[in-house]
Specification:
Number of helices: 1
Structural class: alpha+beta
Order of helices and strands: HEEEEEEE
CATH topology of the largest domain: Immunoglobulin-like
CATH architecture of the largest domain: Sandwich
CATH class of the largest domain: Mainly Beta
Radius of gyration: 28 Å
Number of strands: 7
Distance between the termini: 104 Å
Number of domains: 2
Shape: flat
Length: about 150
């Protein structure tokens, strides 16, 4: 006669394992989608400030030469375009991972106020492009008192 090990069968325990597995699968799926969204962020990243006289646009563009940037203003629109060039590979080199991107980019911003295109300025320093866009005289905000009836 053969010895057999007896195992107790607990169907409810298996159900809870399925719940954990399902939770892990959903969590992994959410994390995967979050990673995809993070990798598709708009480039270059921008911050825009406004006061009553001007807008200031700051773009983070590391690894690019200012000669590869174009900044244009027309009416109430700002267009920034450029190209981030791929580094030259040396003979015999091979990459095992590449996370830094290269290629052309273009960002357009539309402002609520007309811009004084003649006084617009741009400065590129330490990978940050700062564009100062003065508002036209008629667009500068004025503070007025309104009588309450």
């Amino acid at each position: 006669m053969m010895d057999k090990d007896l195992m107790s069968y607990k169907p409810v325990e298996g159900f809870f394992d399925i719940g954990k597995d399902l939770n892990n699968m959903v969590g992994n799926l959410v994390n995967d989608f979050r990673g995809i969204a993070e990798s598709r962020k708009t480039f270059p990243a921008a911050n825009i400030k406004e006061d009553d006289r001007k807008y200031t646009v700051e773009l983070e563009i590391p690894g690019i030469d200012k000669e590869d940037l174009g900044v244009k203003v027309k009416g109430s629109n700002l267009l920034i375009e450029g190209e981030k060039r791929e580094e030259n590979k040396k003979k015999g080199e091979s990459y095992i991972m590449i996370e830094r991107s290269s290629g052309k980019f273009c960002r357009t911003f539309k402002f609520a106020s007309e811009l004084n295109t003649k006084k617009a300025e741009a400065e590129f320093k330490n990978g940050i492009l700062t564009v100062t866009l003065p508002k036209t005289e008629k667009e500068k905000s004025k503070e007025i008192d309104i009588k309450v009836k």
